[in-house]
Amino acid sequence: MRSPSKLRLALEVALALFAFARASANTTDTTDDYPQRPAIVDYSTSEAGNPFVDGWYADPDTAIYQGLYWVFPTSSYPYEEQTYLDAFSSPDLIHWTKYPNILTIKDVTWAKKAVWAPAPAFRNGKYYIYFGANDIQEGEPEQGVIGGIGVAVADKPQGPYVDAIGKPLIGAYNNSAQPIDQDVFIDDDGQAYIYYGGHGHANVAKLKEDMISFDTFEDGTTFKEITPKDYVEGPQMLKRNGKYYLMWSEGGWTGPDYRVSYAVAASPLGPFFGVTGTRILQQDSAVAKGSGHNGVIHVPGTDIYYIVYHRRPLSEDAGEHRVLCYDRMYFKEDGSIEPVKMLVKDDFVDGDMVGWKVHPEGSEGVQIVDNKLGLESHSRSGTIVALDTNFTDQTYDATVILSDSSDDFGTSAGLIFRATNVTSGPTARGYYAGLSTSGRVIIMNLGNGTTVHIEGVDIKPEIEHRVRVSAIGADISVFVDDFASPVLTLRDATYTAGTNGVAVFNTQAKFGNVSIAEGS
């Protein structure tokens, strides 16, 4: 007979495994290629920077396969160039492996363009991708135009995927819903549902066990309309603590009003029709615009959730110029979702500097070294590496390692903020907080050259120093290592908003652990 402690341990293990299975039932495979439980990752955002992969991508959906986190996006280019799908996997949501061309139109004879919004699913030892293609418009199917939602199947999560049925799974408008933007959800009882719809209408249908054909509802219909108020496209279903969360995108996908809302029901079928959603993700004028069309990553066995979505960098105007990002998504005690805050961080541990731009373009000596952003400049005009941000009031943190170089007043390394015209050092406007190994700290108005400085700060070469800039209104303060009190302050209201970056002037330095937050 087992002892009570062993029985208790066995019960705890069983409950943990049950919770894991329920949390990941619709996206987790059961093959033996890799450990099945992914790493528990507890971040506030993408700690190695957003976008978390390079390239123009949109409409991400997610899965957990073979102990890895997977993201399946649309390749964001003009419709005629959207002829393939890529995928990305990661053990830790930091280091990503790209799998190009997991599905191409050569494997789907009826698909010609606009291959959109892949939705992954796993069942019966097979991997499925549901995708939209050809951007069919209302009335076109009746005229013989082929398009809609297809389904492809593979033996591995990275493909190659091939057309499973040789035609669209949903090739017509039902309840006025354009057949695009599908999401597949498998409930705890094993019933699979497909949610989809563009042009302001959303449907749900029941997939059979084979995942390539439909069952009917009790009233004999196949497609049930569930359109919430202000719905445009991009449905996503999530189940948590027995409640069903339907998320969707509102606004125009090319505009700044693109955003995510959600509603909660006791059933996967709603009611959602006509329900006003609660907005949880929208543009932030300091960080990015056009944020929407999301997936969700749930870390199994935890209450850690991330919203994965696309957004458009502030300086980009082309509709296709969208990038993949994720941020933490928190639930309140009552089960409601807190509004998502798009955070700006980069610790460079992924070994890249996606989202940063070098000025002047082509400057040498900019590279990732020992998980730090290394810069080198041999002139007083300097080298600036900047983000695409537009912060006003802010707290800007970073670490700086300076080289042991000869010092004069034109030699320093530090942080750029509220800056414009950073394409070359001499034309930059904004502010610069710099350090030198002689113990000098400066704050400079880059426009008129006004500078305040202090000597005698303990700044050693080849040692990591923590630097903080607090810019609230006209009050600018610089902290070094000890954040209890600033070492230098300046009151200057010349510049109120602009980009953030790092810079070196006539020296070398390495930067890390960048974090920028609005306000104090």
TrEMBL record:
Residues 1-25 form the signal peptide. It comes from the Eukaryota. It comes from Karstenula rhodostoma CBS 690.94. The keyword RNA-binding does not apply. InterPro entries: Glyco_hydro_43, Glyco_hydro_beta-prop_sf, Glycosyl_Hydrlase_43_Enz. This is Carbohydrate-binding module family 66 protein. GO terms for molecular function: hydrolase activity, hydrolyzing O-glycosyl compounds. The keyword Metal-binding does not apply. Keywords: Carbohydrate metabolism, Glycosidase, Hydrolase, Signal. The record marks 181 as: Important for catalytic activity, responsible for pKa modulation of the active site Glu and correct orientation of both the proton donor and substrate. GO terms for biological process: carbohydrate metabolic process. Belongs to the glycosyl hydrolase 43 family.
